[in-house]
């Protein structure tokens, strides 16, 4: 074979190798680009999916915020606010009407029951005869409130006694409380009929003691600016486990038991069960709970037994008030005492008392005064009061000697939009969503700050 033929053959092999290499490189490049494009498509799909989840979460949060805005309406997010009042106590009706008008809600009244006019046939078969007729009259008045709820088909109602007092910031307080009970019901981002959720029978907002079901989580609200200092807490007959609540924290829990009924909300289902157990068929519930006692004891037993699903804040959100006048002025359970003497206005259980601040609001002041001078802000504009979002806390017996720490970090910002909590404008009816006396040992009397 000649040299020329060998060179020609070698050239063909080289060309073939170059062509093969070029083809392989082209294939590799093609598949690499396809892979990159596929990865890009996959990454884009992940981004779209994540964005969609964020949008859904944002929508749920927006729906929740819109839901609890119903608490800013004329019935505090309930279908009605009912107040139990003896028709003869026009002074107490005056203070409720005026106080509620200045904090932006409206009250419907239920007449209290006069013990002297009770028909003995109305007593339950197992009524404890050691209790007075006045105590039964109080029970009957609360049953009449439950009857009103059922009769009118109210999904929810807030029930007040006529010596109740509440904080000037009651609406933002209740929004914070609503977030707490919705969290405990696991319905924060679930559509509900009520801004407080739908899985409750009693929201025990005002009390003189509450204990918690420790097998259920607590909700802790840190740095509550409307929280009473320990030295100003009224006497509480029941409490959550000792040392689980920092002094600057208000907790909300699934209720085990409570005492006193100055303020509580009741659902339609709860009202039905209260009427059944305490009036219509108490013998039918004898295997579940003992009945025949005062209203707060009975409601507490129903919460403890599970017949009612109950939630409560601790300390309470509502307190009690006695206007200036005779020392016997605060009670309807006894007549006029000839030895009674004049006393100043007194409030228990709230920092920025609505009743004690009425004069400041009507004088056009945009600030309110604390019930005690030693609080962090003795004089404050309610618009400057903000509430932090809280955290869940699971109680364990070994925590008895420890102050709990957040299981998730509390958000150091206001949860809700600013809005004045009192008003001298007529209350808006838009978005119409839906007695025991203070114990003498509750603590030192609180005088009118003026």
TrEMBL record:
Keywords: Glycosyltransferase, Membrane, Transferase, Transmembrane, Transmembrane helix. The keyword Protease does not apply. Residues 407-450 are annotated as: Disordered. Residues 434-450 have a biased composition (Basic and acidic residues). The keyword Membrane applies. One of its GO terms (molecular function) is transferase activity. Residues 80-278 form the Glycosyl transferase family domain. Residues 407-422 have a biased composition (Acidic residues). InterPro entries: Collagen_mod_GT25, Glyco_trans_25. The chain crosses the membrane at residues 12-32. Belongs to the glycosyltransferase 25 family. PANTHER family: GLYCOSYLTRANSFERASE 25 FAMILY MEMBER (PTHR10730:SF53), PROCOLLAGEN-LYSINE,2-OXOGLUTARATE 5-DIOXYGENASE/GLYCOSYLTRANSFERASE 25 FAMILY MEMBER (PTHR10730). This is Glycosyl transferase family 25 domain-containing protein.
């Amino acid at each position: 074979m000649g040299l020329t033929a060998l060179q020609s053959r070698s050239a063909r092999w080289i060309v073939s190798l170059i062509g093969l290499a070029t083809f392989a490189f082209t294939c590799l490049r093609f598949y690499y680009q396809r892979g990159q494009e596929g990865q890009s498509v996959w990454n884009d799909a992940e981004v779209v999916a994540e964005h969609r989840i964020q949008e859904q979460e944002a929508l749920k949060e927006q729906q929740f915020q819109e839901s609890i805005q119903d608490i800013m309406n004329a019935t505090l997010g309930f279908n009605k606010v009912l107040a139990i009042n003896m028709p003869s106590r026009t002074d107490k009706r005056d203070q409720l009407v005026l106080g509620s008008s200045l904090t932006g809600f409206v009250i419907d009244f239920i007449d209290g029951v006069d013990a002297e006019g009770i028909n003995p046939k109305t007593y339950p078969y197992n009524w404890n005869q050691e209790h007075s007729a006045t105590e039964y009259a109080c029970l009957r008045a609360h049953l009449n409130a439950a009857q009103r709820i059922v009769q009118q088909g109210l999904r929810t109602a807030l029930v007040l006694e006529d010596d109740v007092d509440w904080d000037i910031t009651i609406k933002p307080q209740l929004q914070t409380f609503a977030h707490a009970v919705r969290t405990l019901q696991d319905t924060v981002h679930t559509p509900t009929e009520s801004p407080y959720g739908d899985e409750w029978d009693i929201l025990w907002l005002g009390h003189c003691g509450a204990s918690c079901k420790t097998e259920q989580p607590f909700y802790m609200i840190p740095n509550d600016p409307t929280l009473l200092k320990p030295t100003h807490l009224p006497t509480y007959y029941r409490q959550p486990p000792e040392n689980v609540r920092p002094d600057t924290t208000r907790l909300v829990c699934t209720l085990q038991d409570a005492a006193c009924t100055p303020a509580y909300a009741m659902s339609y289902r709860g009202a039905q069960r209260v009427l059944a157990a305490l009036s219509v068929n108490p013998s039918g519930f004898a295997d579940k709970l003992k009945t025949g006692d005062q209203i707060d004891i009975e409601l507490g037993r129903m919460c403890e037994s599970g017949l009612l699903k109950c939630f409560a804040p601790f300390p309470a959100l509502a307190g009690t008030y006695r206007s200036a006048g005779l020392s016997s002025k605060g009670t309807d359970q006894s007549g006029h005492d000839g030895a009674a003497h004049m006393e100043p206005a007194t409030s228990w259980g709230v920092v920025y008392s609505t009743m004690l601040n009425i004069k400041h609001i009507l004088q056009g002041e945009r600030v309110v005064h604390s019930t005690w001078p030693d609080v962090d802000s003795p004089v404050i504009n309610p618009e400057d009061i903000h509430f932090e979002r809280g955290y869940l806390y699971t109680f364990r017996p070994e925590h008895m000697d420890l102050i709990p720490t957040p299981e998730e970090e509390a958000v150091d910002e206001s949860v809700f939009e600013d809005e004045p909590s009192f008003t001298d404008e007529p209350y808006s009816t838009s978005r119409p969503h839906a007695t025991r006396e203070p114990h003498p040992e509750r603590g030192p009397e609180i005088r009118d700050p003026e």
